[in-house]
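Researcher: Structure prediction, please.
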Amino acid sequence: MVSEIEGSGSSTAAGEAPPAPHVRTQRSQSPSATPPAPAPRKPARPGGALGAAGRSAGGTPGKPAGPGAASPFALTPPLPSSLGSSISGVPDFFIATFRIPPFLLPIYQAAGTAYGVPWQVLAAINEVETDYGRDLSVSSAGAEGWMQFLPSSWAQYGLDANGDGFKDPYNPADAIFAAARYLKAAGGDRNIRAAVFSYNHSQTYVDSVLLRAQLLGGTPPDLLGAITGLTQARFPVHATAHFSDGFPTLAPGTPGAAGTAGATGAAARTLVGTTIYSDVGAPVVAVQDGIVVALGDSRALGRYVKLRDAYGNTYTYAQLGSLAPLYPVLKPHDHTAASARLTSAGAAPGEPLPGAPASAGVQPRSPVSEGAVSSGLALGAAAGLESPPPAVPPLAPASPSPPAAPPAPSPKIPRVFRSGPNDVYLRPLRAGVQVIAGTVLGHVGAATAGSQAAYPSASATQPHMLFQIRPAGVGAPLIDPKPILDGWVRLESTSIFRAKGENPFLATSPTVGQVLLESKEQLQQQVLHDPGIAVYPCGRADIASGRIDRRVLATLEFLSVSGLKPTVSALQCGHSDYTTEGNISEHATGDAVDIAAINGIPIAGHQGPGSITDTTIRRLLTLQGSMKPHQIISLMSYPGTDNTLSMPDHYNHIHVGFRPLFAGTASLAGAFSSSLTPPQWIRLISRLGEIPDPAVAGGHSSAALPDRTGGGNGHG
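Model: Predicted structure follows.
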């Protein structure tokens, strides 16, 4: 029995070379398998309507450590000072001052991991350059787009991170990945300060970026995890739709919404949720991969479906016209060989040292830029938050929308058919089934006399549905969905394949950056069909049934794409729910994996500096943000890190564990619950609603360059 424990490793002062790993025991074994001011409330915007790729929103948003030696070459470079937060829980200060548009968090973290630079630096550059995409004006030197690239530098370092065929500086995913690529080429994985100076030749610029990155690094991981868990999803209606502020009300005498007391008195009650308006028959889809926990019909919600995602967030689709009788189950065809990208260890080809800055000049509306005089290449800083939304560069002709899906067949006999690389099975939709993002759960219906009586408002006469969100955690309240919906609209506009609900990697393999942006369902398919990942039969059943956390799946695929083929010895099945110390094991919630071999070399007998175990752990230590493991346990400890532990009973495997995101069962609720209190959830959503939204174009801009590399995007 293994014995994972709660704890953290020792730390060293920033900038010091962390000592070499200390090996406790070896056993031989034969081979076997200053914070910115809060942003003002954003102004009202006129309502509108967009297609399925974008939606409009109107209204005003309401333990031990060994002795030491040399710096690990593969560790993510430290910032000038420690960025870790040692504060337990989430202080209200961090909620009140948070100002990053949430949809950008997974992009920063994936790009940072892919290229070995801190994600906080990418976010800070984005803030300094364009105020997180809110000021997309062209600088006096001609720098443009989300990360303000000079055209010459974009031609060399721009890339197509989202796989749409174009390298577009005005697409946030392309621009952020390109900035990470430039910083890596400039030595950012070894000297981040010098790399930022290469990006923009201004010492003021460097100081501003690194100070902002340091402040971002102090954000509690629990807060980042809570926000990230609500950002990686798609819009719930796959059709032209619009939504606005305000909660609908129930007429007097109508029972209350699920989770609230009945409203049988004379006063009307408010339903916490957002009304989304669309056409009759518009498909309502799963915003995330998840499990259908309830569906049916009630007086308060009408026809409804409740979906719980991998993070524990529950989404309610109410007032539907109809529920889908069937849902698709995809089974990809097996592949017999790994792709060239997967067998090439996932490393980007060597980049030449940059000969010119990525960014330069002054943006017209940047008050900080106008006052920067420390160098000829002045600080291109963020515009004031009160500035109006910038004009988006002209778009190239958009591709036509895909044809509507044919009507679902009769539910009497589920059938199977072939669709490209998939076999598709149609099965009855019921409580307990697992569905993937984009699965049709129902349809918008016409307004009825009953709905108009229960919801006495003018809007009740229009075809609509009600959408509710209850975040993960014991006692979490229903929250205002609108700020979250706003973020999903912008995530879809980036054309990231996750947001589009597609899996482009069935006939090929993802790069490192793409792995970290895949959904849980996409990762399940990848891990189960990746010849570089060996999983014991019971563990494969864990994965196929959806019991394994997305972060564990992404870690396995991340190692495989990095040329480190893991052999899995323990997931949830076959592992005790408790450690030898009596703590609840992270395996119990599907949040941990034990790795017994890498590239066929057993961990037992192969630990110590320069060993395959050392190489693997160093690679794992490059994971950032929400993907950073809570524990990496072996016989080795790495002073200077806060998540590596040395334990003698881990002589034959590497344990990689993550903090559980939510209590999946009542027996675990006391041990694992949300770090945010119910009042904090309310304050957080209110704060997200105050963050001004950047403009994200729905297609490629006139500055986009065709990608002729054949899909070598987002690598690292």
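Model: The first strand starts at residue 22 and ends at 23.
Researcher: Thanks, that helps.
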